[in-house]
Amino acid sequence: MKLIIGKGSCGIAAGADKVSDAAEKYIAENGFNISTGVTGCIGMCYLEPIVDVYKDNGEKTTYVKVTADSVKEIIDAELEGKTAEKYLIPQEDKESLAGQTRIALRNCGLINPESIDEYMAKGGYKAIEKCVKTLKPEEVIEIIKTSGLAGRGGAGFPTWFKWNAARSAPGNKKYTICNADEGDPGAFMDRAVIEGDPNSVIEGMLVGAYAMGSDEGVVYVRAEYPLAIKRLANAINQAREKGMLGKNIFGTGFNFDIRIKAGAGAFVCGEETALIASIEGERGMPRLKPPFPAQKGFWQKPSNINNVETYANVPWIILNGGEKFAAMGTPDSKGTKVFALTGKIKKGGLVEIPMGATINSVIFGVGGGIKNDRKVKAVQMGGPSGGCIPAELFDTLIDYKKLGATGAIMGSGGMVVMDETTCMVDMARFFLDFTCKESCGKCIHCRVGTKRMLEILTRITEGKGKDGDIELLENLANEIKSSALCGLGQTAPNPVLTTLRYFRNEYEDHIYNHKCTAHQCKALVTYSIDAEKCKGCTLCARNCPAGAISGSVKNPHVIDATKCVKCGKCASVCKFGAVVVD
Amino acid sequence: MSEICNCVLEQEQALAKIGIDTALLEPVLKQYAPVKGSLITILQHAQDIYGYLPVELLNYISLKTGIKPAKILGVATFYAQFRLEPIGKYLVMVCQGTACHVNGSEAIQAAVCEYLGIKDGQTTSDGLFSIKSVACLGCCSLSPVMMINGEAYGTLTPAKATGILADIKAKEAQGR
């Protein structure tokens, strides 16, 4: 019997280490004949820690929300040939997982990411073997072209085109770079892929390098992802030992090796020219294009940069054919896409679905709907470069062009769900605060423009908005969009423009009616006590940090608005729902 | 040895005064100084060793690598990872990513700051805790999240967050 514990960052944060320690101790103390192992994130983060029990005949049983105590019960039950029903994965979650189409995530949560043998047992490194032994580089590029694979980092540029440009560029030295600087807040697809299946990224880079005629690769990983760096480093070492990286791969004279460069925390480094500057040890500041990295990139040599998920798709495409990949999706967007579902959603986690599904099917299908069954308001896609899509447009198909038409973007795959308690002006302020902090400062439109926009948004959320602010915001947003140097600046106004487009009434409510209907903007919220509901229990008065609540026992209490600091403590402690927030 | 000029010695002495032993950095410099484009890697290792990057250390790295001090300071202040001031024994990183924001991270941040009696970016007077708000820790499905010395704590409430800090405080008090 084998006990496999899900240990992605999410599993570990949910307590997977405690579960495995307890299990190992229990097994050792009792001398059970059970081995233990790890796997990456299966994507159902809301059910972590997850434990898979494999019987000797290969039959698998999945247990969820396992604790240090329940793992013992599970072991006991399994040893008796039974299942610990209480902790079994719910049927609907099992079906939701089976209903996905997993290509980039094909091995995540199934194999041990620290073992190259398990990757190879799943057909790993067969794609690069096929390439170097039977295909010419041009033929590899042709397969990728047929597949319609587009850059999964957000922009959706055709992968074959970039590879071909790097291949055609003059010079003998070319670099294959993987962008794993997943700085978009609310996204963790790349982390999960590297933590769960690092070899698929290495193999994808190998195929790309072979196609482009490159012998050196760099993976630029966020320093905030220590586990991903550790597992990737381990996978690179194992690949070298197996001869998959290094000189004369498969005896064909093809050489390629990869090193890791840990990023140091700068969102702008997701932009390819900034990323190159960072790998060169400089401040991560973008430069004008052209020349494109395919002509002059890392150390001025032709370089190709793809995102983690893009590379992870490549081995599957080589083995299954470009046509099979292209058969999924829409005319404009082929294959599958991984999304990180978060926010006010019941079942947060990772999902991989074919392009062309509706937003609705993701949020209410795989995602299980909205937390506490509140009313959904919008979904934010594409992070600080993207936009908010309102609930009325949730029948939009997931497709680069269709999402673009809403003002949002496909982005790298972050989907943050918002309900009626989310204030859209506050969301816009949140994103501008982010881009303003992350602006590298090189071009004035981004450096100063985002700051001015943030000031306006801040004053609106503080109840100091003025007539004309909305128009000023729109004007600034369009100026920045058309004149900023790089992608960060050009897309920074998107969260503001989309919220203005779909939720203009909320801006107007803030400015003209001094109201925040979501009750998020403190300055615009008032607290009062409903005298009919109040039982005079004094709980609110005792908890009020400002001493703003008065009243005697068993008599209705009153909040003094001049003293109230709007901390909301009274509303959270009241057992009778007597505190009215407006 | 004649090639070591006085300024290197001076810097070493200045660093020794603030408790920084430059010998620990020697293997890093030996490995990376000759490799073009390794400045960020050197700074990352230096911060791992000493916990922070005092300006004297940046000057020292400049002398040893030949990279101009202005450039080193420029890089060290550009990236969020680097800090020029020492931090507490426990670095509390409160996530302010989108998912955490939507799920109430501002209340968590406020509770943590109130409990420790310091603001974001500051260190408690006993040198135990530093608070730093960060953009995204990538554990969005567990939001709101904070990370203390590399360990993530998820689905926080203000009470749960301060409880975790109280546990660490208690453990530290016992240890003394």
Characterize this entry briefly:
The complex is a heterodimer of chains A (582) and B (176). By secondary structure, chain A is an alpha/beta fold.
Please characterize this protein's 3D structure.
The complex is a heterodimer of chains A (582) and B (176). The model of chain A has no long low-confidence stretch (mean pLDDT 95). Chain A contains 24 helices and 18 strands. Chain A is 40% helix and 15% strand. In chain A, the strands form five sheets. Chain A has a five-stranded mixed beta sheet. In chain A, strands 11-10-14-12-13 form a five-stranded mixed beta sheet. Chain A is α/β, with parallel strands linked by helices. With 176 residues, chain B is α+β, with helices and mostly antiparallel strands. Chain B folds into two domains: 6-78, Orthogonal Bundle (Arc Repressor Mutant, subunit A); 90-175, 3-Layer(aba) Sandwich (Glutaredoxin), CATH 3.40.30.10. In chain B, helix 7 (105-116) packs parallel to helix 8. Chain B contains eight helices and four strands. Chain B has helices at 6-17, 26-32, 39-50, 55-65, 69-78, 98-102, 105-116, 158-175; strands at residues 90-95, 129-134, 146-148, 151-153. The interface between A and B is large, with 56 and 38 residues.
How does the overall form of chain A come out from the CA principal axes? globular
> What is the strand tally of chain A?
18
In percent, how helical is the residue content of chain A? 40-55%
Task: Detail the poorly predicted runs of chain A.
Answer: none
Give the total of domains of chain A. 5
If you average the pLDDT of chain A, what whole number results? 95
User: How confident overall, as mean pLDDT of chain B?
Assistant: 91
In angstroms, what separates the terminal alpha carbons of chain B? 45 Å
**CATH topology call of the largest domain in chain A:** Rossmann fold
Task: Calculate the terminal CA-CA distance of chain A, rounded to whole Å.
Answer: 58 Å
Total DSSP E strands of chain B: 4
* CATH top-level class of the largest domain in chain A: Alpha Beta
Greatest interface and its participating residue counts: A-B, 56 and 38 residues
The major pleated sheet of chain B works out as:
4 strands, mixed
Level of helix content of chain B? 40-55%
Instruction: Give the structural class of chain A.
Output: alpha/beta
Task: Determine the oligomeric state from the structure.
Answer: heterodimer
Q: Which of globular, elongated, flat, extended, rod-shaped describes the shape of chain B? A: elongated
Biggest β-sheet strands, sense, barrel of chain A? 5 strands, mixed
